[in-house]
Amino acid sequence: MAEKTETLIDFIWEGFDKQKQKTKGEISAKDATAARLELRKMGIRVIKIKPKPKPLFTKRAQPITPGDIAVFARQLATMLEAGVPLVQALDIVGRGHENPSMADMLLSIKADIEGGDTLAQALRKKGIYFDDLFCNLVEAGEQAGVLETLLDKIATYKEKSESIKKKVKKALTYPIAVLVVAFIVTAILLIFVVPVFEDLFKSFGADLPAFTQFVIHLSEWAQEWWWVVLAIIAGTAYTFSYFKKRSHKFNQTLDRILLKIPVVGMILEKSAIARFARTLSTMSAAGVPLVDALESVAGACGNSVFYDAVMQMREDVSTGQQLQFSMTQTGIFPHMVIQMVAIGEESGSIDAMLDKVADFFEEEVDNLVDNLSSLMEPIIMVILGILVGGLIIAMYLPIFKLGAAVG
Question: Residue 283: which residues within 8 A CB-CB, separation 6 or more?
Answer without folding.
Answer: 133, 136, 137, 292, 293, 296, 297
